[in-house]
What does this fold into?
Amino acid sequence: MRHITLRQLRTFTTALRAGSFAAAAEKLHITPPAVSVQMRQLEELAGMPIVQRGAEGLMSTDAGRELAQAAGRIEAALAECDDALAALRGLDSGRVSVGVVSTAKYFAPQVLGAFARAHPSVEIRLEVGNRAAILAALEASTLDLALTGWPPGKMAVQKAPLGEHPHIIIARPDHAHAGRRRVAAAALAQETFLVREPGSGTRLLMEGVFASARVTPRIGMEMGSNETIKQAVIAGLGIAFISAHTVAVELADGRLVALDVIGLPVMRTWFIVNLANRRLMPSAAALRQFMIDEGHAFLPRFPASNDAAAGAHTRRLSKGKRRLRVRVHAPGPERLT
It folds into this structure.
């Protein structure tokens, strides 16, 4: 393994992402035969096949996955070294890779935009994905920081609270329970719930809430994004347990309502998370502290109490006083699968 070169590893990881040797050659600005030579040499050094061809292109073998993980750690170490050298030169520069769960994409870019204006020389790479994908990337050291409402339980991390994260049940304005006060969870047992995929933070929280109420919700559809869930609820396909931060606009313009269910909203906390055993470079540490100090100011506001006279359909979420354009370095890292 000590004879493997960085060029070979980068050729290998590029080929995996691109899906073919020809596409990798185009990205690397070399010829396809040159890619083939690099891959053949790498397989000889590994002593076993590292890729196989599938219906969707190149796929890594078990040995290839080990190499890909090692390559990710090497790239992360080189990036850390680059940031450290920049700090020693006294430069306000460096790179920060930030992963946010999809529920946080409604406010996280504003936080990053504010930091980018204060530190224009820092390159910010933003990755949005579900909780499992973001935490896997954090564990693989391809992310410096992760923003999540459900920190990992088995991974050694440092976590710091960013602000409150309310969860509510949404429905169409003409729903039978819209405008009613203190609806019991049991009254929703026959409703059709539209839910996120298993493993998402919102799904885990919903399951815990209904288990505590001894209610088994009827699952209608599993959907991979909050946007799809919102549109499905608006279309009348069911109701949904969802982060209040994802439906600020729809509640404000009356396309959705928050049902006044006993025990809701459930208040969770947003956390900024980083690996405990990985040293943060100055730029990443600065962004982490900025999010701890200022992140709460960018969270959409949700009222703590209900207004019976106005009814649930008149509740509003405000965007807060700050309105900032998103400014993140493009392009971000490859899409996680």
In short: The two ends are 27 Å apart (CA to CA). The longest helix spans residues 62-88.
